[in-house]
Design brief:
The structure holds 2 protein chains of 2 kinds.
Chain A lengths: L2 H18 L13 H9 L6 H20 L4 H12 L7 E7 L6 E6 L4 H28 L7 H17 L6 H30 L3 H20 L26 E3 L7 E2 L1 H18 L1 H11 L1 H6 L4 H28 L4 H6 L2 H11 L4 H17 L12 H35 L1
Antiparallel strand pairs in A: 1-2, 3-4
Helix pairs in contact in A: 3-4, 3-16, 4-15, 5-9, 5-12, 5-14, 5-15, 6-7, 6-8, 6-12, 6-14, 7-8, 7-12, 9-10, 9-15, 10-12, 14-15, 14-16
Chain B lengths: L1 H29 L8 E5 L10 H14 L3 E5 L7 H10 L4 E5 L4 H10 L5 E4 L13 E6 L1 H19 L3 E6 L4 H17 L4 E6 L6 H13 L2 E7 L5 H9 L3 E6 L9 E7 L1 H13 L8 E4 L6 E3 L8 H15 L12
Parallel strand pairs in B: 1-2, 1-3, 3-4, 4-5, 5-11, 6-7, 6-8, 8-9, 9-10
Antiparallel strand pairs in B: 10-12
The chains are: A mainly alpha, B alpha/beta.
Chain lengths: 425, 340
C-alpha cells in the first residue's frame, strides 16, 4: 500500500467515525461525561432512543387529536392495537395449525384462524412493500442521496410484474415466480438508475429527477392499464388488467388465497433486509457507498469513483422498490387498475419508515411493521363508530406519520443544533 | 434543560389522560341497550364518501334505509388492499346485507361472496353474471341509462327547436355499453322533439383529462350545436366548461351537476341511492335476488333528471316532466341502447 492510499484510507475512516460519534468539543485526556457516552451509543446513526421518543411523542399528539374529537384516546389506541392483529401473539392456547405446503396438522400455541390472525395477515401483507420501499430510500440515503422515487420504482416493478405475470400461461411456478420477481426488481433498478446516471454524469439533483420520474411512471401505468391501454384486461369497459396466471402467484402460507391470505412475500422482504445489512456492512460496495455518503470529496480523494457509486446506489435502491411492487402483484393483488395506481402511496410510507428507522436494516424493518400495523389498525373496519369516527380513523395514520417525519427532521436538524448551542453557551 | 423536557412530557401525558377520562365519562352515559335491528354494511371503493358521485349516492341510500330502522355501517376503502378485509369485516359484524360500490370491487366481492355463501351481498354497477364464480348470493344493481338519456335528450331537442338551431351534441368517454346507452337515448329523444335536428357525437377516448372533452365539445358547438351532453365522467367537466364559455347549455351526467352553474340545463341521473335503498329493503324482506341483476329504470325511479337551470323555459320543464310520466307508465317504447 502506497503512502497516498494509506492517507486516503485514514481520511475515509476519519470521515466515517466523525459522523458516527457525536461531534462535541472533547478535551484531550478527559473522559466524556456519561450522558454523552450514552448518547453516542444510542443516539447516533444506529440509535434507538431518538426514534422511540419520536414515535412516542407522535402517538401522544395523535392521542390529543383523538381527545379533541371527544373520543377516548386509550380506547381508540386499544381498538387500533387489536386491529393490527399484533394482539394475536398474546393469546396463547391449545390449537393446531396446518404445516405449510402439506395437509398435516400439528399442535400450535396460537389460533391461526382467529380474527386477530386475519388482522395480522393483513398487517404483514402491508409491511412487506413498506420494508422494500423503505430500503429503497435507506440505501440511497447511505450514499448521501435522497431517493423520493420509491413510488415510481415500485410502479416500474408493478407494471413488469403484471405484464410478465399475465403472460406465459403454462410456465412452471418454479420458473415463473422468480422470473416475475427478478424482472420486477430489474425494472425498478433501471428506472432508478436513470436518476442515478443523471446525478453521476451531469449532476442533476436526485430529488428533482426522482419526483419527475414518479409522475412519469404513474401516467405510463395509467395509460397501460386504462381504457384502451395495452395491458387493460379482457373486459372492454373496465380499466383493470387481467389477473396474473396461477403459476405466477406466490404461495399463500397463512389464510386463504381467495381471501387475501399472507404469502411468502414477507419472508422475502425480511431476507432482503438481511441482504441490505450484508451489502452495507460486509461488502466493498457497501463500504464505498457509505464513504461517498459521508463525504464524497474524501471518498474521491481516496480513489473511490463517486459517480459509479451514485449510479449503483440508486440502481440497487430501485431494485428494492421494484421487487416490492412485484411482491405485491404476485403476493395478493394479482391485478392492477388505473385507479389503484393513482391511489397508491406506499413509496412515501416507505420514506417515513426509512427516516424513522434511521436507514438501518433493523430500524427499517421495525418501522415498516409499525406503519403496516398502523395503516391496518386505523382502517375504518377496525374501529367501531362508537369508539372513533371511522371516516377520521385513516387520517390518524396520516397524522402520526406526518408527526414522525416532522420530529425526525427536527431531531437531526433544529433541536440537535439548538441543544448543542445551549450546551455550549 | 432536561427538566423542562420532562415537564413538557409529563404535561402532555396528563392532558391525554384527563381528556380520555372526560371522554369515557361522556361515552358511558350515552350508551343504551338497543334491539337487534336488521343491519346493512356499505363498503366504498377508493373514491371515498366525498366523491360527489357513486360512493356518495350509495351512502345517501344507506342513510335513507337507516331512517326506516335499519342499522347502517359504512366502511371506506383507502387502498385496494382494503376491499377483501372490509367486505369480510361486514360479514363478521353480522350484516344482513353487504353492499360494494363500483366495478373496482368486482373481484373482491366475488371472492368474499363465494366464501360466505349464506350471507347476502349486492354490488352497484356490476353485472353479477359476468363475475368469475357467478355467486348466487350477490345481486347486481344496474341502470337503464338510455331512459335518463331520453329525458335530457328531449329537453335538448326542445331547446334547439325554440332557438331554431340545427344541431345538439354529445361527448362520450369511450364507446362502451353504459356510455352508449346514455347517448342512444339522448339522440333518439332529441330527434323525437325536433325531427329535423342533427345529432353530433364524439368520443374523447378518455374519462379524466378535461381538455380532450372540451376540444370535442367546442368543435360541435362550432358546427351549430346548442346543447352539449357530457357522458365522460371527469373529462366531461370540460364539455360543461366549453358550454359555459360559448354561452350554450351543457347537460350533466350520473350525479346532479347543476351546482356548477346556470349553464347546466339539467343532468341525466343514475340514482345509486335508490338502488342501494331498494337492495337493503329487499334483503330485509328476504327477497334479495342472488345471482341476478336488478335493473333500475324510470318506473322504479332508478333513473331521472336533475335540477333545472334557472334559465330553462317553463314549457320545456313541463314537457320533460310529461315525458317522465309517460316513461314511468311504460308508454314510451323503442328507446335504443346502442348508438348507430
Amino acid at each position: 500500500m502506497s503512502d497516498d492510499e494509506r492517507r486516503a484510507d485514514e481520511l475515509i475512516e476519519l470521515a466515517i467515525t466523525q459522523d458516527e460519534v457525536e461531534q462535541a468539543p472533547l478535551q484531550p485526556g478527559v473522559p466524556p461525561p456519561p450522558s454523552m457516552h450514552f448518547a453516542s451509543r444510542f443516539g447516533g446513526v444506529s440509535g434507538v432512543i431518538a426514534p422511540l421518543i419520536t414515535t412516542l411523542i407522535a402517538f401522544l399528539m395523535g392521542g390529543l387529536v383523538v381527545a379533541l374529537t371527544g373520543k377516548n384516546p386509550l380506547k381508540v389506541y386499544h381498538a387500533i392495537w387489536n386491529g393490527t392483529g399484533l394482539n394475536w401473539f398474546f393469546h396463547i392456547g391449545n390449537h393446531s395449525a396446518r404445516v405449510p405446503f402439506s395437509t398435516t396438522h400439528m399442535w400450535f400455541p396460537w389460533d391461526t384462524s382467529s380474527v386477530a390472525a386475519q388482522n395480522l395477515q393483513q398487517t404483514l401483507l402491508l409491511t412487506t412493500p413498506i420494508i422494500l420501499t423503505g430500503l429503497a430510500v435507506a440505501f440511497a440515503f447511505r450514499c448521501g442521496m435522497f431517493n423520493i422515487g420509491g413510488q415510481g420504482q415500485y410502479f416500474a416493478g408493478t407494471i413488469f410484474a403484471v405484464w410478465l405475470g399475465t403472460s406465459f400461461g403454462g410456465l412452471s411456478p418454479w420458473v415463473h415466480v422468480p422470473l416475475v420477481l427478478v424482472v420486477g426488481a430489474l425494472a425498478g433498478a433501471v428506472y432508478a438508475g436513470i436518476a442515478g446516471l443523471l446525478k453521476a454524469t451531469v449532476g442533476a439533483h436526485e430529488v428533482i429527477s426522482t419526483i419527475m420520474l414518479n409522475w412519469i411512471s404513474i401516467w405510463v401505468g395509467s395509460y397501460l392499464f386504462g381504457q384502451g391501454g395495452p395491458l387493460q384486461g379482457s373486459q372492454p369497459s373496465i380499466p383493470i388488467s387481467n389477473d396474473i396466471v396461477d403459476g405466477a402467484k406466490l404461495p399463500v402460507i397463512w389464510g386463504l388465497k381467495l381471501l387475501q391470505g399472507l404469502s411468502i412475500g414477507i419472508f422475502i422482504a425480511v431476507a432482503i433486509l438481511v441482504v441490505y445489512w450484508l451489502i452495507i456492512n460486509r461488502t466493498t460496495l457497501g463500504y464505498e457507498v457509505r464513504a461517498v455518503g459521508f463525504n464524497p470529496e474524501a471518498a474521491r480523494y481516496g480513489g473511490i469513483s463517486v459517480a459509479r457509486n451514485y449510479f449503483l446506489a440508486m440502481a440497487i435502491s430501485g431494485a428494492f422498490a421494484g421487487l416490492g411492487g412485484a411482491l405485491d402483484i404476485t403476493g395478493w393483488e394479482y391485478r392492477i387498475g388505473e385507479n389503484d395506481i393513482h391511489a397508491n402511496t406506499i413509496g412515501f410510507i416507505g420514506l417515513a419508515a426509512a427516516l424513522l428507522g434511521r436507514n438501518t436494516a433493523l430500524g427499517v424493518g421495525t418501522a415498516s411493521l409499525l406503519f403496516g400495523a398502523l395503516i391496518n389498525g386505523t382502517s375504518g373496519r377496525q374501529l367501531d363508530p362508537s369508539i372513533f369516527r371511522p371516516d377520521l380513523a385513516g387520517n390518524l395514520t396520516t397524522i402520526i406519520q406526518g408527526l414522525v417525519i416532522l420530529f425526525v427532521g427536527l431531531n437531526v436538524g433544529g433541536v440537535w443544533l439548538w441543544l448543542k448551542r445551549r450546551r455550549g453557551a | 434543560m432536561r427538566k423542562r423536557w420532562l415537564t413538557l412530557a409529563a404535561l402532555a401525558v396528563a392532558t391525554v389522560l384527563l381528556a380520555s377520562l372526560f371522554a369515557a365519562m361522556r361515552g358511558s352515559s350515552a350508551s343504551a341497550a338497543h334491539k337487534a335491528a336488521f343491519s346493512a354494511c356499505l363498503v366504498t371503493d377508493i373514491g371515498g364518501l366525498n366523491d360527489k358521485s357513486f360512493n356518495h349516492l350509495a351512502f345517501v341510500g344507506l342513510q335513507t334505509a337507516e331512517k326506516s330502522g335499519v342499522k347502517g355501517r359504512v366502511i371506506q376503502s383507502k387502498s385496494p388492499a382494503d376491499y377483501i378485509p372490509n367486505l369480510q369485516a361486514c360479514v363478521r359484524a353480522g350484516a344482513g346485507i353487504t353492499i360494494g360500490v363500483g366495478f373496482l370491487m368486482t373481484d373482491a366481492m366475488d371472492a368474499v361472496a363465494s366464501s360466505f355463501p349464506s350471507n347476502k351481498f349486492a354490488i352497484v354497477d356490476v353485472d353479477v353474471t359476468s363475475m368469475k364464480h357467478k355467486p348466487k348470493n350477490v345481486e347486481g344493481l344496474l341502470f337503464k341509462e338510455q331512459e335518463a338519456g331520453y329525458l335530457v335528450g328531449y329537453a335538448a331537442g326542445l331547446w334547439a327547436k325554440s332557438k331554431g338551431a340545427t344541431a345538439v351534441g354529445s361527448v362520450g368517454g369511450l364507446k362502451i355499453p353504459p356510455v352508449d346507452r346514455y347517448i342512444a337515448g339522448y339522440q333518439f329523444a332529441a330527434k323525437k322533439a325536433d325531427p329535423g335536428l342533427k345529432t353530433l357525437n364524439d368520443y374523447s377516448q378518455d374519462f379524466v383529462v378535461q381538455a380532450k372533452c372540451k376540444e370535442k365539445a367546442l368543435n360541435q358547438i362550432a358546427q351549430g350545436s346548442v346543447v352539449e351532453f357530457q357522458v365522460a365522467g371527469q373529462c366531461g367537466l370540460g364539455v360543461l366548461d366549453a358550454a359555459r364559455s360559448k354561452k350554450v347549455f351543457g347537460i350533466g351526467v350520473d350525479a346532479d351537476q347543476g351546482y356548477l352553474g346556470s349553464h347546466v340545463l339539467t343532468s341525466a341521473l343514475k340514482k345509486v341511492d335508490v338502488s342501494v335503498n331498494a337492495a337493503i329493503s329487499s334483503a330485509k324482506a328476504g327477497k334479495l335476488k342472488g345471482g341476478k341483476d336488478v335493473i333500475f329504470d324510470a318506473k322504479v325511479n332508478g333513473v331521472g333528471y336533475g335540477k333545472w337551470s334557472p334559465k330553462a323555459p317553463a314549457a320545456i320543464k313541463a314537457a320533460v316532466a310529461a315525458q317522465f310520466r309517460l316513461l314511468k307508465a311504460g308508454k314510451i317504447k323503442g328507446i335504443p341502447a346502442v348508438v348507430k
